[in-house]
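hey
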């Protein structure tokens, strides 16, 4: 059923963090209690995978409805963040810096309530500065912290086919690796700076967004020139443009299938903004990324914030005067 990830040998024994109890559950220990914070599309998919693997999962979300849905699958409910205090590992999956800062630093947040030796794994796409701050604050509290950003959508997460970009202390990566390998098809280790996982994810999202923009433009051109978009898509993906991004997002653009969003347009705006802020900090011009950021902002201005960010295709079609530009289909 599961595809093996890479073949590097990993010890199944628990890596004990400084000041951690010797009995602290490890990531591949089915007796470990694993908290999941944030039960949106991605967080729910991660929690469901953990449950199917036999783990004890404690679920928290601001929406009681999301918690109840996971309870039906066997999760235990947490009414507040402090209820995760008994967890050995907590995975957070929240949309932005503000949400993650609240999860970690609020009065009943993870830093205050997790026990010494517990491990916080953040899968959120956030700024490098926040990840580094979390790494320091968790270490000050004798806890572990790992940034483990994800490449792939919720459907791929459900199929355990996402890619995981992990960065943090070597001991934390070693401890988390068995669990991360259950969640995705491959784990990439990016070093001890937690921010590395975030900048790598942002870079990947820039490449995805710019690819979608280029496909959107050429498809609009070809449609107006009388070429069937399905045939154009077949030519692209059957020749030189057969990558995952071209296939997955190109199909959405051709089919005008922008609902429900796998990656909402507003989140795309946020990710490009974070990437450009990092580029400014590093003094790296990114003119194409800047353009695509503006195109994503234009999606919001058009009132299409509830669409997938591949609706860049609809925006290009509208600008080209194509009548079907605003038609969207459910899968």
């Amino acid at each position: 059923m599961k595809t093996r990830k890479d073949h590097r040998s990993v010890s199944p024994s628990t890596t004990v963090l400084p000041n951690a109890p010797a009995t602290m559950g490890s990531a591949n220990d089915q007796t470990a209690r694993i908290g999941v914070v944030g039960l949106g599309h991605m967080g729910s998919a991660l929690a469901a995978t953990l449950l199917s693997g036999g783990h004890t999962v404690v679920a928290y979300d601001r929406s009681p409805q999301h918690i109840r849905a996971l309870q039906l699958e066997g999760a235990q409910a947490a009414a507040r963040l402090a209820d995760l205090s008994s967890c050995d590992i907590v995975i957070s999956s929240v949309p932005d810096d503000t949400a993650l800062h609240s999860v970690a630093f609020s009065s009943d947040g993870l830093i205050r309530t997790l026990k010494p030796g517990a491990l916080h794994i953040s899968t959120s796409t956030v700024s490098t500065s926040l990840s580094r701050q979390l790494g320091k604050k968790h270490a000050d509290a004798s806890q572990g912290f790992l940034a483990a950003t994800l490449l792939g959508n919720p459907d791929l997460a459900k199929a355990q086919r996402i890619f995981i970009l992990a960065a943090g202390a070597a001991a934390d990566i070693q401890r988390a690796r068995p669990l991360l390998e259950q969640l995705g098809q491959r784990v990439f280790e990016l070093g001890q700076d937690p921010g590395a996982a975030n900048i790598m994810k942002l870079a990947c999202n820039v490449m995805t967004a710019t690819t979608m923009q280029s496909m959107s433009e050429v498809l609009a051109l070809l449609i107006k020139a009388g070429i069937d978009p399905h045939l154009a898509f077949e030519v692209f993906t059957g020749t030189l443009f057969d990558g995952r991004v071209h296939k997955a997002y190109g199909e959405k653009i051709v089919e005008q299938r922008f609902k429900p969003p796998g990656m909402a347009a507003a989140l795309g705006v946020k990710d490009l903004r974070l990437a450009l802020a990092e580029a400014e900090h590093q003094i790296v011009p990114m003119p194409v990324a800047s353009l695509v950021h503006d195109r994503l902002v234009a999606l919001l201005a058009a009132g299409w914030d509830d669409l997938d960010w591949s609706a860049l295709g609809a925006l290009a079609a509208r600008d080209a005067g194509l009548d079907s530009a605003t038609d969207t289909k459910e899968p």
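The beta strands are 33-37, 56-60, 76-77, 89-92, 119-122, 144-151, 162-168, 184-189. The two ends are 25 Å apart (CA to CA).
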